[in-house]
Amino acid sequence: MKSKLFVPGSRPELFPKALASHADGLSFDLEDAVAPDAKPRARVHLQEFLESGAAKASGKTIIVRVNAFDTPYFIDDVRAVVRRGVDMINLPKPDSKEQIRQVLSEIISAEAANRVDHPIKLLLNIETPRSLRIAYELASADLRVAGLQLGMVDLFEPNGIDRSNKTIVQQAMLSVKMAATEAGVFAYDSSFADIQDTEGFQAEAAFSFGLGYLGKSCIHPSQIALANAAFRPTDAQIAYALKVVEAAATAEKNGVGAYVVDGKMVDVPIVIRARSIVASASASGLLNFDKVSKEVRK
Questions:
Q1: How many other C-beta atoms can be found within 10 angstroms of the C-beta atom of residue 286?
Q2: 3-230, which class in CATH?
Q3: Is 34 exposed, middle or buried, given 0-12, 13-18 or 19+ CB atoms closer than 10 A?
Q4: Are 120 and 82 contacting, i.e. CB atoms less than 8 angstroms apart?
Q5: How far is it, in rounded angstroms, from Cα 95 to Cα 99?
Q6: Which of 57, 132, 180, 201 has the maximal Cβ count within 10 Å?
Q7: What is this structure's pTM?
């Protein structure tokens, strides 16, 4: 899911356009993008859309951002949108393991009521000082937590922190990635509000990709192509990773622990990274399987 497009739940006319886009995932929003008096109708729009089967048939990752657990909207949101075809519920402002378990209890209840035949995962927003501080605790709260998503606008702006300060942004990105990695879940990057600043988006996405983030949120369709390009390994990275994986297979057979590929020392951490790059390239259709050995495909 290199790119994920936000779609307001109150704008059903945008749903077909979002499905036709090149975004890997769609995040239908019932929270910030929907005014309080429009939330009931947005739930109806989204429920009807999900029940139509179009979302599931698209092959895209389907996510719904509900309102926070401590709001009066949460329960109605969950009961409306926990439907077949939804892959993840995106939870804003989680603040404890206990809350995560309560949220999942409501989701599981809605799954049973709505005859959902697959477990819906949780994507947790890290967008408050507390959630950043306890990010690992949140990520490891339950096996249904699939990932952590950085929300920099909410994390920075209310606290007087400059969102444009690259040092601050990168520090937060690293903290969330480390928490996600320790918990064994993915990290997903924040949105970038300045739609016209394509260079800024690309630079932030490139840094995110270098940290091992899964992809980047898009608030406008014009950002989708930028995210898709940023979150794919380069041809040079793929070529080197293939060499490393090939060399690793040979070294394992010969009982060698560390070795050299293209003049660079290689050991286990490098091999892990190389295998990740090969897997990403394979998922993106970037490998020529006629030229890839059986060792690499494993």
A1: 15
A2: alpha beta
A3: buried
A4: yes
A5: 7
A6: 180
A7: 0.85
